[in-house]
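lol ok so funny story. i was supposed to be doing the assay writeup but got distracted and ended up predicting the structure for this chain instead. priorities right. anyway since i did it might as well share w the group, maybe its usefull for someone
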Amino acid sequence: DFQYELNMSYSNYHQQVARKERRAYVWSGELPPRNYSHPVFSCKIFVGGVPWDVTEDALLEAFGPYGRCKVEWPGNEARFTRPGQNRGTITRGKVTGYVYMIFDHEHSVRHLLQDCSQEFGSAGEWYFRLKAKRNNTIETRQVQIIPWVVSDASYVEDPGDRLDAKKTVFVGALHGMITAHVLFSIMNELYGKVVFVGIDTDKYKYPIGSGRVTFSSHSSYFRAIECAFLEIKTSKFSKRVQIDPFLEESECMICHQAIGPYFCRDRGCFRYHCGGCWQRRHPPGSLNATHRYLTRNTPRSNRDPIQTLSSATPDHISGFSGPRSMFMPLFMLPLSF
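and the output, tada:
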């Protein structure tokens, strides 16, 4: 019982330290208006504020006049039964309040935006009057349209600057209205000189909610990864984004005998570990026990070090004991609006 209470006290202490370490930087401001002379749009758009019971046919009927298109639901399709006399099964998306529309051609997006209203000084959102049948009547709902300009996916201030992967961070859970230039300005203001920002996109060149930021110095790089999270607050949205080192799996830098998928983000370590070496270097009760690790989101590296040790040799696991909660990994976060 005494050992259990001791382990629990260690766990509570480490959790309190971790909470203090994870206090995020906060950036507050307004996104600048977007002004383009000849923009090229992604053929995919975000549509927010759609009715929960909207059907795919209704969406295709509303957006079809602008060109051939299809609906991409944000999750797996769900089915519900139509109430009333004309019962039947209708396919629709999950109750998320938004969908993506994908057109065959970029010019369809241009034509759609001509029929949208836009607030003065807008940072990239338009509003469209969606007409759809509901209960045998035609209802009109104003929905938000967020297009994406392809050139907004990258920004570099000086093309002559060298890009160093060892000074690059991964940024996850980005809002869809954050362009590379906007992210450049925010990170440059908070952490120091940025040389490059790239926003990750899908096959339609639409952002997927993650990106990469390269700094000019190691001090700016460490300042960013040590904060771990960044709160971005605007009048349009508030978003907590995740900041991690940009990693590739490598061998364990201690034993050099195994793939080390567990990367210690603490500056005192800042290296890859296999499961066994992680346990030996971060025993419960030690100063290193508060360190957090990162893993790549792959089948091999998605495992807990303790689970990894279950198949290791006995000398890898000798002397280890401690609560599992000390080894919870950080995962990449998806795009959200």
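The CA atoms of residues 73 and 263 lie 35 Å apart. The chain is about 20% helix and 30% strand.
back to the writeup now i swear
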